[in-house]
Amino acid sequence: MANRTLRAQRLVALFMLGCLLFSYPLLALFDSDDRVFGIPLLFAYLFAAWALLIVLMMLVIERSNR
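Given the sequence above, the corresponding structure tokens read:
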């Protein structure tokens, strides 16, 4: 039971991190004409943040199954 509540708390924390990563003030920092490997900086940030959240969710869920 404690394992399920810990997993739920971690997933809520990841949700809050996602809200922070995709909030306007932080997105505005990356809204420029700069490019990373030919990709606009904003799009590179969005995909990197999205991938980070997916990896963190995977770690939380896999770790709680053990």
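Strands lie at 35-36, 39-40. Try to locate this feature in the token string yourself.
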